[in-house]
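Q: Here's a chain of 221 amino acids. Please give me its 3D structure as tokens.
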Amino acid sequence: MKPMDNQRGIGIAEAPIPLWSPAVMSEPVSIQSGVLPEHRGAAARLYWQAFGQKLSFVMGPDRRALAYLDRVMRSDHVITATSVHGTLLAIAGFRTASSGFTAGGMGDLVAVYGPIGARWRAILLWLLSSDADARQMLVDGIVVVEPMRNCGLGSAMIDALCREARERGYDEIRLDVANVNPRARALYERSGFAAVGIDRIGPLAPLFRYSSSTRMVRKLA
């Protein structure tokens, strides 16, 4: 069982709560693989601010969700963007056949939520999960801080993910975007992704606050 490998409907998002200085908007941005140890807390907050609304029922309360994310985040499955001052500006997690950015296990859930809380959370997260395969690298959320919206950073993070996928030998990169996020879908379409199917979550919709997600693929050849 993979409690939080990659959840359907988690695409690009923009965090509303400032974790940065507005002065960075005019500064150069550095995009690199991995997340620095000093940025783990900020990365967890950024991810949770963006996707917490969808995951709050199963991963909340906030303090436990942040503790879980900080515990399980894998630095070898994420790309980050930082300012010249070292401020975290964006994260782009991904999943491969071997692991993922938020790939925790049952032991991690038990450590944060206890045995009973871990059991039902693991079941719900498993029902929502989406596995990678040998041909496709999966996107596990792209999050851009508010002052860097509409300046091309989201597109730059997508390009960085595509480069990472090519270097890892993948033919395609795939993401799942929720039906409540048309802005993200429009960005992905402009970035070369095409819709290939729809997944409906049925009775889970009230819990996760969306009803379906569109699978989108970009070929890398």
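Q: Can you summarize the key feature?
A: The domain at 12-219 is CATH 3.40.630.30 (Aminopeptidase).
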